[in-house]
Amino acid sequence: MITIDAGPSGTLRVAPSILAADFGSLANAVREIDAETDWLHVDVMDGHFVPNVSIGPPVVKSLRQYSDRFFDCHLMMSEPGRYLEAFRTAGADGCTVHVEVGSTATLIDEAHSMGLRVGLAANPDTPFSLVAPFLGDIDLLLLMTVFPGFGGQSFISDVMGKVSEARREVDVNDLALDIEVDGGIDVVTAPIAVEAGANVLVAGSAIFNRSDPLEAAHELRVAARSGRG
Q1: Burial of 48 (0-12, 13-18, 19+ CB in 10 A)
Q2: pLDDT tens digit string along 82-130?
Q3: Which among 19, 75, 94, 220 could disulfide-bond with 80, CB atoms 3.0 to 4.6 Å apart, if both were Cys?
Q4: Under 8 Å CB-to-CB from 28, ≥6 apart: which residues?
């Protein structure tokens, strides 16, 4: 398996979430937005950690032939360690696990040993203090701006304080770490998140629910740039 380079940390990136795409025509949906896609975000839900079920390694494997973008897999799972190798083999470039499931240091080590880029996610009500000890060991910090489980939710602005705190730690300690936000990201909230310190924007409904998803992704990118001043 060839691992795709994520690119320099801190770069502003748009990561469309395929959770909101038409699963009956997923390959076409991915190809349609390719020109405005930096990373492709894959939401994986197990029906246990979150009250919903989505996709798994077979879908990642099938999509890999249609996209050479970085596959950013968000594992909303109670036991992500059981599936890291399966996702890596299927074509995942990075896997993000939730701090809330525990065994965080072990999961980080296991994912790194497989050659995966490693992310750590935190729910909106999870304090920054739980992820702070791991910032030097991970490649990505995902701060959820909705409670995970379903697409189309409203942006929780209170998380921006946590994003700003994370950005200060990254900058002060010169960490090669991306800060990602996911949930309710659109042309209004994207610049708010970027101004707070996020550099990777996951958007699903705001892109795929539009009549022209490619144009929607472009508009999101333009709006996000305005948050950098």
Answers
A1: exposed
A2: 999 999 999 999 999 999 999 999 999 999 999 999 999 999 999 999 9
A3: 75
A4: none
Distance CA 218, CA 214 (A): 6
Q: Which of 55, 68, 63, 72 is nearest to 28 (CA)?
A: 63
User: What does the alpha-carbon distance between residue 8 and residue 213 come to, in Å, rounded to a whole number?
Assistant: 26
Q: Which tens digit of pLDDT belongs to each residue from 43-69? A: 999 999 998 899 999 999 999 999 999
Residue pair 36/221 in contact by the 8 Å Cβ criterion: yes
Beta-bridged to residue 17, according to DSSP, are 41
pLDDT for 163: 98
Give phi and psi for 101, each to the nearest 5.
-80, -15
Catalytic residue among 43, 72, 93, 178: 43
Choose the catalytic residue: 38, 93, 139, 182: 182
Q: Model-level pTM?
A: 0.96
Picking from 105, 103, 168, the residue whose alpha carbon sits closest to that of residue 138 is 105
34 belongs to the catalytic site: no
CA distance 140 to 211: 31
Q: What percent of the chain has pLDDT over 70?
A: 98
Annotation marks residue 46 as catalytic:
no
The residues near 138 (Cβ < 8 Å, ≥ 6 apart) are 108, 118, 119, 120, 177
Whether the predicted pLDDT of 4 surpasses 90: no
